[in-house]
Amino acid sequence: MTNAKFDLEERTAKFGEQIIKFAKSLPRNIVTLPLIDQLVRAGTSVGSNYCEADCAETRKDFEHKMGISKKESKETKHWLRMIACAEPDFTERSRELWKEAHELNLIFTAIIKKSRLKNFEIRN
Asked: How many angstroms separate the CA atoms of 44 and 48, rounded?
């Protein structure tokens, strides 16, 4: 059985790779260029911030970095929606990536809640 930490690290890395490949497939024009830039920034930072959280030195730092991963996954969903609007031929692939970003967002939310609950239990 594989380590759950490794699985999420690998999953976020693969997500970033998929975002890069998707971005490279999009047509370049005045509308899509800024959307692509934002999508790549947000989509690839999900995994990098998860890695930082995994190596955090304190619970507060861990929760902060997880929070950034959560925000970046939500932002990625936004940019995918904008790209689907700008380039309707890419709606289906945008939707697939949106679903993965949504799942990652739910995972990060659950991890943050669990960490905060543990922190609360330790204090009481």
From this structure: 7
| DSSP assigned state of 28 | P
**99/77 Cα distance (integer angstroms):** 8
For the chain, domain boundaries: 4-123
Q: In the block, which residue shows the tokens 């940019």?
A: 79
pLDDT for 121 equals 57
Q: What is the largest CA-CA distance in the chain?
A: 56
Condensed to tens digits (0 to 9), the pLDDT of residues 34-90 reads 999 999 999 999 999 999 999 999 999 999 999 999 999 999 999 999 999 999 999
Residue 121 CB neighbours (<10 A): 8
User: Which CATH code fits 4-123?
Assistant: 1.20.1440.60
Q: What one-letter code names the amino acid at 24? A: K
The tokens for 103 are 């799942």
One-letter amino acid of 21: K
